[in-house]
Amino acid sequence: MSFGTELPDQVDLISNISDNHLRLLADVKDLYKERAALERDYALKLQALARRGQEKKGKLMTALLVGDTPTRAWGEDTIKKSTFDHAYDQFLTSTEQQAMDHVDLSEQLSVQ
């Protein structure tokens, strides 16, 4: 069976279907680009949030744990022993890791 001679009336139909597939692929490609941009923006915002959290921690942690006027001697190890300091560090680390995961996802989507 030869396509051109056996199915002469199907050429336009097959051409239209192929065009529709190509349009769909272009739409999917655009969606990937938009998703990659969103992931990149979200990652930048998470990184900024973690940075601000780290700055605030540095300013307030001492006063929070030993008060504005400590009544006994304290050192950096006093802060490091705090469960609040540990939990806050875990939160910031987790936020930074999520940001990196979103950067990686953005890069993977951009490549595809």
TrEMBL record:
It holds the Pfam family FCH. Residues 1-112 form the F-BAR domain. Keywords: Coiled coil. The keyword Coiled coil applies. This is F-BAR domain-containing protein. It comes from Exidia glandulosa HHB12029. It comes from the Eukaryota.
